[in-house]
Amino acid sequence: xxxxxxxxxxxxxxxxxxxxxxxxxxxxxxxxxxxxxxxxxxxxxxxxxxxxxxxxxxxxxxxxxxxxxxxxxxxxxxxxxxxxxxxxxxxxxxxxxxxxxxxxxxxxxxxxxxxxxxxxxxxxxxxxxxxxxxxxxxxxxxxxxxxxxxxxxxxxxxxxxxxxxxxxxxxxxxxxxxxxxxxxxxxxxxxxxxxxxxxxxxxxxxxxxxxxxxxxxxxxxxxxxxxxxxxxxxxxxxxxxxxxxxxxxxxxxxxxxxxxxxxxxxxxxxxxxxxxxxxxxxxxxxxxxxxxxxxxxxxxxxxxxxxxxxxxxxxxxxxxxxxxxxxxxxxxxxxxxxxxxxxxxxxxxxxxxxxxxxxxxxxxxxxxxxxxxxxxxxxxxxxxxxxxxxxxxxxxxxxxxxxxxxxxxxxxxxxxxxxxxxxxxxxxxxxxxxxxxxxxxxxxxxxxxxxxxxxxxxxxxxxxxx
Length: 466
Prior knowledge:
Elements: H1 2-19, E1 26-32, H2 52-60, E2 62-68, H3 74-83, H4 87-90, H5 105-111, E3 115-119, E4 135-137, H6 148-165, E5 169-174, H7 186-192, H8 217-246, E6 253-259, H9 274-277, E7 281-284, E8 293-300, H10 304-312, H11 326-329, E9 339-346, E10 352-360, E11 363-368, H12 385-393, H13 398-409, E12 413-417, H14 435-451, H15 457-464
Parallel strand pairs: 1-5, 1-6, 2-8, 3-4, 3-5
Antiparallel strand pairs: 2-7, 6-7, 9-10, 10-11, 11-12
Helix pairs in contact: 6-8, 8-12, 14-15
């Protein structure tokens, strides 16, 4: 009896393994650069047919409605994605390399025999040896990171290389749209000496002005240029996905799409508002994610590395701050996903403006450590048409003048009802009826700062008297 039972048990185990969905062999991460969470059509954008490829990907997979990056600026955001650690725990608070002792997702994949590839935004994952790239294509080889046709060519080359080597792969395909300079803008002409090609121009009349910006002619012009770049970014995503399909890897590849932070306009990128860190995030995992499904729990950029490692069946990296959201990809719920912690340290110009935030489904609490009534905020969004138009309009419009003042000088604390006020127009911090909620959010933020040894925690504790 025993040999028979052992044989039968082995047969059943083999059958179960055959029937069970296998882990994805390959991983494709497509990122947009500075795309606001509500710019794709599937996330509610009213510009007609602005992102058909991203929308199609969502119809084939799962769309997250409460996804955030951890820090709303390029290099730190991407460093968090690939380490699973907060910036003050990986060393890249601004545009610095991560520390040598911090393990990366790419190191773990490389050790497991994966072929690692990157298209554009290369310098934003540093130092280079920590990311084990086997395939390394720079923005200059991709039309300044803005040529969909060149992304297709190089992605196809990478997939064929993986096929020839019989290796699983990880490809990070980074569109440099819709980052400034925007398509067709004077800023683009100054930066590149020419206008880069695009297939569709969004006219100012078509542009949807975000609620956190005033509807002024120059603002409308610049937002139209931004959306022209959004459309080109969508074409890049579509061409990478086309290359994947043509290479016959579509069915065993986990695909994710997200943006590294919000749009480069005042009150978005390099801040901690909802429009700073909330990101469009889509996952397509054939056989696992239900086509056209939507998940409403919070996920964060800090969760990316542990999720990918669990999905492909590799051991987790010890000491990460994030955790896998694999159950969500399978359609389940997960405890502890009712809030998200975000932060900001410094701009690309190395100016430090320390901020911390905790957001739940309704409220967002922000702590700004830098305002003193004199120091002036400075970021890249002030280099374009929009902020200059706001400053000019502020001469005669008191409401716009208040917005400009808030942007430049800020307040130590801010509270917004993001459920009813996603554009953060009404600061509730001084309203006594919100004090219980404010105190609760302060405590949650302090707990997270303490748990992760945030260097700002004592400053925060003293400023808010906790």
